[in-house]
Amino acid sequence: MPLGGRSEGGRRPPPRCLVRAWLLATLFLLAPAAACAHAFPDHSEPRVGHTVDAPRAVRVWFDGAIEPVFSTLRVEDGDKRRVDNGDTRVDPRDSTLLEVSVPALPPGPYQVFWSVVARDGHRTEGSFPFRVK
């Protein structure tokens, strides 16, 4: 390259600060995918708001891996009494599946409360209803 800073084609190479800015912008745009890895329910059994035969367990699949130690699932009846067996677990073969067994549930409304910590360390929680016919 000649002393004037132009290449043989007559174009100047981009200044280092522009290259650095481009790299930082690229990293900034890619970072939210990792930073926003909160886990939210993808689907469940029983399905949200559905009326079903008495289930043997309540299962919730999340859109990302969850931490077993910090994730809970609770089922309450219409009188706000806890009715699950207290054995919440993350499936060892599927780190997106949280489940808890339930005894034979009589007909009526139920509410499922979930609280999970995603692998990124962020906690999310919520609830959904279902009904036993």
Report the strand count. Answer: 8
User: How many domains, in number, for the residues?
Assistant: 2
Q: Which structural class do the helices and strands define? A: alpha+beta
Report the β-strand fraction as a percent range. Answer: 25-35%
- Would you tell me the overall average pLDDT? 86
- Rounded to the nearest angstrom, the distance between the terminal CA atoms is 81 Å
Largest sheet: 4 strands, antiparallel
Number of helices: 1
Global outline: elongated
Low-confidence spans: pLDDT under 50, at least 5 residues? 31-35
- Which CATH C-level class of the largest domain is it? Mainly Beta
Strand order of the largest sheet: 1-3-6-5
Under the CATH scheme, which architecture of the largest domain would be assigned?
Sandwich
| CATH topology heading of the largest domain | Immunoglobulin-like
Multimeric state: single chain
Radius of gyration: 25 Å
SSE sequence, one letter per element: HEEEEEEEE
* Proportion of helical residues: 10-25%
Brief characterization of the structure:
The chain is of the alpha+beta class and 133 residues long.
Write the layout of secondary structure elements.
Elements: H1 16-35, E1 41-45, E2 51-52, E3 57-62, E4 72-77, E5 89-90, E6 97-101, E7 108-117, E8 123-132
Parallel strand pairs: 2-8
Antiparallel strand pairs: 1-3, 3-6, 4-7, 5-6, 7-8
What can you see in these coordinates?
The chain folds into two domains: 1-36, no CATH class; 41-132, Immunoglobulin-like, CATH 2.60.40. It is of the alpha+beta class. Strand 5 (89-90) and strand 6 form a beta hairpin. The chain is elongated and about 80 Å long. Helix content is 15%, strand content 35%. Residues 31-35 have low confidence and may be disordered.
